[in-house]
Amino acid sequence: MFRRWFPLAGMAMGLTAAASAQSLGTVTLPVPVMADGRRVAVGTYEIRLTSEVPQTVLGQSPDSERWVEFVSNGVVAGRELATVLRSGDIDTVVNGPRPPANGVRIDVLRGGDYVRVWLNRRGEHYLIHVPPAP
């Protein structure tokens, strides 16, 4: 389930967030995390869905993963891949409590190896799995 992707060549961080990005909402990170190789500090961030779509794997839906950005004061602090699931598919992937419609849930998973940022927006679930920062 968890795939780690390497940063795209030539992608610069710390730039002003792209105007074409769509806001998924605001989250408050309780612990610092690593997003695409960059440390994202404890704090409140806007999560923006970018227009970038990663290369798909054979048999994978082209919209099953999307790049999202952690944005603070208009500056991209980090970016990561989000798994995108429709509401009807979420039951087959995740057990336990889920965020309400247009809500957010943040969980530290199995032994503290990952932090899951889960946004439920417009019938789609965005699951962002990031490791805690050292």
Description of the molecule:
The protein has no helices and 9 strands. With 134 residues, it is mainly β. The protein has one domain (22-130). A hairpin with a 4-residue loop joins β7 and β8.
- Principal-axes geometry comes out as globular
Number of strands: 9
> Structural class of the secondary elements?
mainly beta
Proportion of strand residues: over 45%
Low-confidence stretches: 1-19
Tally of individual domains: 1
Helix content: under 10%
Number of helices: 0
End-to-end Cα distance, whole Å, is: 23 Å
SSE order: EEEEEEEEE
Quick structural overview:
The protein has strands at residues 22-29, 33-35, 38-40, 43-49, 65-72, 75-86, 104-109, 114-121, 124-130.
What are the salient characteristics of this protein?
134 residues; mainly beta; seven-stranded antiparallel sheet; two-stranded antiparallel ribbon; 9 strands; 46% strand; disordered N terminus
